[in-house]
Amino acid sequence: MTQPQLEKYLWGAAVHLRGHIGASDNKQYIFPLLFFKRICDVYDEEFAEARALYGDDLQPGAFAENHRFQLPTGAHWADVRATTTDVGRALLTAMRAVEEANPELHGIFGDANWTNKDRLPDRVLIDLIEHFSSQKLSLTAVPQDQLGQGYEYLIKKFADDAGHTAAEFYTNRTVVRLMTLLADPQPGESVYDPTCGSGGLLLNAALQLKAAGQEYRTLRLYGQEINLITSAIARVNLFLHGIQDFEIARGNTLHEPRLLRHDRLRQFDIVLANPPYSIKEWNQRAFQHDAWGRNLWGTPPQGCADYAFQQHIHASTRPDTGRSVVLHPHGVLFRNQESHIRRQMVEADVVEAVIGLGPNLFYNSPMESCLLICRTRKPAERQGRILFINAVDEVQTEKAISHLAEHHIQRILTTFREFQDVEGFARVVPVEEVLTRDGSLNIAYYVSNVRAGEASTDTLTQTVAQWSAGAVTLRHSLTALLTELQEPVTR
Question: Pick from 23, 240, 320, 346: CA 20 to 30 A from residue 73's CA?
Answer without folding.
Answer: 240
